[in-house]
Specification:
The protein is an alpha/beta fold and about 525 residues long. The strands form 2 sheets. The protein has a 9-stranded mixed sheet. Strands 9-10 form a two-stranded antiparallel ribbon. It is globular, with a radius of gyration of 25 Å.
Length: about 525
């Protein structure tokens, strides 16, 4: 069966078992992902074991140690952590306890996983756990890192969908991550995500490197921070399933800069929580990660935006997901935005349509910084792309991008940068033909309704807005395709942001009046 069919059948089997257990999805997800991880590790271990024993011969088998496997890039599995051992336990044995002990044994022999693997297996009914072990053994039979990586990502996505808002904390839709990676092109260097969730940005960066015929283990270094420890563990497991390792630390990125990020990174990628309030700014006032000052509004968007900018080195690039309202925010956020533009950092803004997330229906904007554009012909320009009409309808409530759509948008950016377009989807030659029809001779041009390279002067004339809709205009031939509901959603979000700002100003005015009255009475 195809990978997609296998993923679907695995999920249906696991979800059916969840329905027959007393556990909620949020309690079920990490242990199930741990079993997928264990099955993959077991297959790789058995393949390496056969290979090593063949090389060493019968006489040398006693000399094989954990380090022998680790030198082959394989996790060492003690006897009590191997799949067949767990499945061959005698009837009546405590399977949950045995799996927990197996996870303990793996961490004991593989220091990079210390404190990471799930330990909740005794909460499963024994028959449910045994059924899961059997299903994964019968359906996952090849030690292919790509297959297991995709299966793991698929399960992450499905758990995010089932868990709703909680799931959204650890999972960014794969197609959005792929588009961010396509635009910032992380060929080589240090990659940082201070809101790393389950590590999707890192995994897709590694896939990008592999696609360009390089070894990600040698080309990229991974640094992440995550405030939720359970999510940090998911990230570490996700990296391990994909044969990657990284320095993933716990900590609240608002207040803790565990990686000493200032000016350190070649690439920053993130999907931070939108519109967070209640941040204690007093704790941030002397923090050098906010070179343009802190916003007055009780909203964390521009705190994240400055954090990403400050982490970049002199040639660094950043790509991140942001609420639409941030592109037009007023007051101190406008002043911060003007300083970002004056620093020649903002490079590309892409408007994304609604329904790309499992947890919210609202559209969003992808922001991109590039410190390396200074001194180039695009130093005083920003590329705006409207991709709201580009999507694949997965089901009634969800959308994503097809590979050719990601390639199309990425190629617009490449032309704008003076780079050659990439056409890696050889089975779809029409993609290249359609792209060259819109951009003859592979030269960038502004296209009404699609893209516009606006000058800083034009941006100033628009009140320093970074909303792509202000610049791109309308494709007359596509007026009939205007999606009324999406535009209403966008306006509603903008109205909510302005209303919140108005309430903040009202509070400030009231506070100032109180101070004035107190001062006059004192006089």
């Amino acid at each position: 069966m195809s990978t997609a069919e296998l993923e679907k059948r695995l999920w249906q089997a696991a979800d059916q078992l969840r329905a027959n257990s007393k556990l909620k999805a949020s309690e079920y997800s990490a242990p199930v992902l741990g079993l997928i991880f264990l099955r993959y590790a077991d297959l790789k271990f058995e393949a390496a074991k056969a290979r090593i024993e063949k090389q060493i011969g019968t006489s040398g088998r006693r000399q094989i140690k954990a380090e022998t496997y680790q030198a082959e890039g394989v996790l060492y599995l003690p006897e009590t952590a191997r799949y067949d051992y767990l499945l061959d336990l005698p009837e009546g044995a405590n399977v949950g306890e045995a799996v927990n002990k197996g996870m303990d044994a793996i961490e004991l022999h593989n220091a990079e996983l210390k404190g990471v693997l799930p330990r909740d297996y005794e909460t499963f009914e024994p028959e449910v756990l045994t059924s899961l072990l059997k299903i994964f053994k019968s359906m996952l039979t090849e030690p292919s890192g790509d297959l297991f990586g995709k299966t793991y990502e698929y399960f992450l996505g499905e758990f995010a969908r089932v868990e709703g808002s909680k799931g959204g904390e650890f999972f960014t839709p794969e197609s959005l991550v792929k588009l961010i990676v396509e635009v910032i092109e992380p060929y080589h260097g240090r990659i940082f995500d201070p809101a790393c969730g389950s590590g999707g940005m890192f995994v897709q960066s590694a896939h990008f490197v592999e696609r360009h015929k390089k070894n990600p283990g040698r080309e990229i270094s991974i640094y992440g921070q995550e405030k939720t420890d359970d999510t940090r563990k998911l990230c570490k497991m996700n990296l391990a399933v994909h044969g990657l390792s990284g320095d993933i630390l716990d900590g609240n990125s608002y207040y803790e800069d565990r990686h000493k990020s200032l000016g350190r990174f070649d690439f920053v990628m993130a999907n931070p929580p939108f519109n967070v309030d209640g941040i204690t700014k007093e704790r941030l006032k002397d923090d050098k990660r906010f070179p343009f000052g802190l916003p007055n509004n009780d909203n964390g968007n521009y705190i994240w935006i400055e954090m990403f900018y400050a982490a970049l080195n002199a040639k660094g690039r950043a790509g991140f997901v942001m609420a639409n309202s941030a592109a037009d925010a007023r007051s101190t956020e406008l002043e911060i935005r003007k300083k970002l533009l004056a620093a020649k950092a903002v490079d590309v803004m892409i408007a994304i349509g609604s329904n790309f997330f499992y947890t919210v229906t609202l559209p969003c904007t992808l922001w991109f910084f590039d410190n390396g554009k200074r001194g180039t012909p695009r130093e005083n320009k920003v590329l705006f792309i409207d991709a709201r009409d580009i999507f694949n309808q997965v089901d009634r409530a969800h959308r994503d991008f097809l590979p050719e759509q990601i390639e199309f948008i990425g190629n617009i950016v490449r032309l704008y940068r003076g780079e050659e377009p990439e056409f890696t989807l050889d089975e779809r030659p029409s993609t290249k033909k359609e792209f060259e029809k819109q951009f003859p001779k592979s030269k960038y041009k502004d296209i009404p309704g699609r893209c516009k390279a606006a000058s800083l002067k034009e941006i100033e004339e628009q009140g320093w807005s970074l909303n792509p809709g202000r610049y791109i205009g309308v494709d007359e031939s596509a007026v009939d395709d205007f999606v009324f509901v999406e535009r209403v959603e966008e306006l509603n979000e903008e109205w909510a942001g302005l209303t919140k700002e108005a309430h903040t100003l009202e509070d400030q005015i009231e506070e100032n009046l109180v101070h004035l009255l107190e001062a006059s009475h004192a006089a």
